[in-house]
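U., I forgot to send this yesterday:
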Amino acid sequence: MKKLLNFFLVLSCLHSNAQNAAQQIYGVQPEWSAYWISMAGVSLREYGVFHFRKTFQIDTIPLSFVVHVSADNRYRLFVNGSPVCNGPARGDLYNWYYETVDLAPFLKKGKNLIAAMVWNMGEMAPVAQISNRTAFVLQGNTEKEKLVNTGKDWKVFSNKAYRPCSTDNSLRLQTYMVIGPGDEVNAASYPWGWEKNQFNDAAWPAAINVTHAVAYGHGSDNLWTLVPRNIPLMQENLQHFPIIRKMSGMALNSNFLSGKSVVIPAHSMVSILIDQTYNTVAYPELIVSKGKDALIQQTYAESLFTKDRLKGNRNEIEGKKIFGNYDLFRPDGGEFRNFRPLWQRGFRYIQLDITTRNQPLILNDFYSRATGYPLEEKASFTSNDTSLQEIWKVGWHTALLCAGETYYDCPYYEQLQYEGDTRIQSLISLYVSGDDRLMRKALMDFNHSRVSEGLTQGRYPSNRLQVIPPFSLFWVSMVYDYFMHRKDEKFVESFLIPVRGVLNWYEHHLDPDKHMLGPMPWWNFVDWNLSFPNGVADGANDGHSSIISLQYSYTLQQAAEMFDHFGNHMEASHYRKLAQELNEGTFLQCFDSLKKEMANTPQKTSFSQHAGIMGVLAGCITDDLKLPVMNHVLYDTALSQATFYYRFYLTRALTKSGMANLYYSQLSPWRNMLKLGLTTFAESPDPTRSDCHAWSSSPNYDFLATICGITPDKPGFSSVRIEPALGELNFVQGKMPHPDGIISVLITKKGDHGVEAEISLPASLTGTFIWQGRKMALKGGMQIINL
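Result:
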């Protein structure tokens, strides 16, 4: 164990160094001498699973043995039978990531083995997976390690035990599901022990060289341009299944969940419904013996369904069935066969449907390894309302499940990184963990996605083109968020050109007569509001949408701050003038002065919370109208309603209107999800597709940013503003990571208008405390305020 821990400490340092290189975006990398390798005589763009092996001799165990490794699509690396890492982090062909690892802790004197399992789902690959062709590469860091460089001295095997299954998920589940196929594995064809030294690979052919490995800054005919991984490795933590909820075909026996064997008799059909009791993202590992020619189907689901495909309370199973993606495993009669899917699975429930033939099947063990980005919870929040703790807990769990090699919109259905989701997820990461690396990668990913028109793609990485123009605006808002929360000027300034491209695209779609946006192409998504067909608000496609026009104004003002900061004052002035014209034009065309509401279009035939929210955020609604407008937004049920996603912007509008104290009263949607047995927060109100959608975890940001009132007051978080908004709460305590240390607040109401606050800031940080309009200067260290 100590050896493994030391290895991960070294690995962490190596990833830190790789990240530093990537932060220079990327700087010219050293030339590589290794080849990308693959197998002769097979299609390299179709479905396939391959194993690579290289044996080598060393006389002494080195202090370090550093290699760089990558594959298209995915790989899992072993040394002398021990798993080392998997990857690569998802990117694109121009930014193909490689991992840097030290193999020394796994080496021994004499003969050693490096082995890699590489797979490509071909045309069935997840939409988040970009590919060129199946190949593997490993490069030694210095001369001493180059004896293991990939080339023709490696061996390769095509594993025909695998074939895809569960390929019709979107059709069967009647929804959009693009995470790739399931695995059907025939154990009789599997090369068991292939990753171990004693395995005989004499019959394996030599690998072929596909092309030279080329790092960023080199090459003129690249298949992949290699760049260093800029995020940590994903973690894997053992977790056990706590309970079997139902078993048919034999008497209930849960011994195998605790590592004790259970025998399924020959000629049996047994079904076992297992409840993890909470949503998870993990690699299930089923270990079986005997059972030759049996068939085991593992079906995964976030919830069970009624016959009408409704979920109801997620804890209830009676009268419900499981529907979901699945894997198939066909045992060969061998001992302790371990079936682990190639890719992670999202689930709360797993159902094993087992059919045995002439030989009994022994279930030896069943567990999973939870996986995801290693975000660390450094923030905390408590209050006199203890029920908020469950919202905090479930929200953070949701955010964790939606953070992998990219941010995921949802782990079960798509695992795609969308700007609309990612902006909210990034703020949660900053506030709860202080880790900005995945946010930095996301900002870069979307920058890499840009199309010739100037827009970013709506999601990225993606092997299908999807353009969502409002999400490009939210990407600009993400850049602004990073600008406000991190002092990283060179990184932020690198985005000014693409930010300019996004804003210019919108400027070319202005209607100068109405001073609003005119017709716009692509998918102008706003929210999964039932009144917005396919999420598109009135006027967003055919012209004169108040919501999109005002979102553009809101974004222009954020961009103006950044351009001013970097000395581009003329552009900043232009953006502010344009925002003012949009505000004036949209108010004139769309504001109903009798209703005190913002219409969706100049026709004033439909109204939404969204239009009022964006009116306030853009500064279109004047100060004297903010209160009546926001009261209508909150309480006029005739307005089409914001879902969980857009309620993040509802809270921003409350804060800007001086009504942040109402936030606490707006938590009913999250309380209702908990009542339905959800262990993560859903995509939208029931009936919902996804039970785990991180854009619904905004309370983990708002408990600190709104209730505790902690926000940056100047770019780079060089000054803090603390303006608590407790609502009906009497006491709150919160802490959050800042680049210079920890910010902590303890706030207690005194009477109707008084407050006592204990505030601790990092020594170098100053700021302002605000309570009901009264301001006090804050300095580094601990201070007590009585007002």
